[in-house]
Design a protein that fits this description.
By secondary structure, the chain is an alpha+beta fold. It has five helices and seven strands, in the order ααβββββββααα. The protein has a four-stranded antiparallel β-sheet with strand order 1-7-3-4. Strands 2-6-5 form a three-stranded antiparallel β-sheet, with no helix packed on it.
């Protein structure tokens, strides 16, 4: 599977440039721009689409002391980019729905989920940094989104940046559709699609 530098070079190839990098931290304009955007674009893309490789299901661990308005406190999962589903007793919450029966907040030392249930099962998107775990579909979407993010800074071509942003949006929408076909509800996929514009994966992205 590709390494971080391979993904960066694939993004550069989308710009039509012959430039390549050997390391994300090297002293070149291309490497600096890729390094600037790489982690942010990766994490955002992993949170937007319900990818198989970063979907985790686990019981949350009781931790901390809840505020007076709640009966139970659970540690927020490490590396969680987005909660997708919560099983709270007899009720179920899905991402995109208003929060009900729980609250996610920080107490200054960590992030916790507060509720009135003695058991909580969570399905969430977990940050994955190892490219060896990325699926081909994620890599293609990541390359397109990364290319859109770095295009203007490297080429100074606004029209190219806009074209790449549209291509990235189409790629993400295709990934969402594929995810829906694998069992994600159509309503959930629609809610995710509505976030594209405000998440910088549309024609307004830099």
């Amino acid at each position: 599977m590709p390494a971080d530098t391979d993904i960066g070079n694939m993004a550069l190839s989308r710009l039509g440039t012959r430039a390549t990098i050997a390391d994300l931290t090297e002293n070149s304009t291309e490497a600096r721009q890729i390094n600037l955007w790489y982690a942010t674009v990766r994490d955002e893309l992993q949170s937007l689409v319900d990818w198989n490789f970063n979907r985790v299901t686990q019981a949350l661990a009781a931790s901390g002391t809840p505020p007076a308005r709640w009966a139970a406190s659970y540690a927020y999962p490490s590396g969680c980019l987005r909660m997708r589903r919560l099983e709270l007793g007899a009720s179920t919450w899905m991402w995109g729905e208003p929060a009900r029966g729980f609250e996610i907040a920080s107490n200054g030392s960590g992030t916790f989920l507060y509720c009135n249930e003695d058991r909580v099962m969570a399905v969430f998107a977990q940050r994955v940094v190892d490219p060896a775990r990325f699926t081909p579909g994620f890599i293609l979407a990541f390359v397109d989104c990364l290319a859109a993010a770095i295009a203007h800074a490297i080429t100074q071509k606004a029209d190219l940046a806009e074209r790449l942003a549209r291509r990235a949006q189409e790629r993400v929408e295709r990934a969402m559709a594929d995810s829906a076909n694998e069992g994600v509800s159509a309503g959930d996929a629609d809610r995710r699609a509505q976030t594209l514009a405000v998440r910088g994966v549309d024609g307004s992205a830099p």
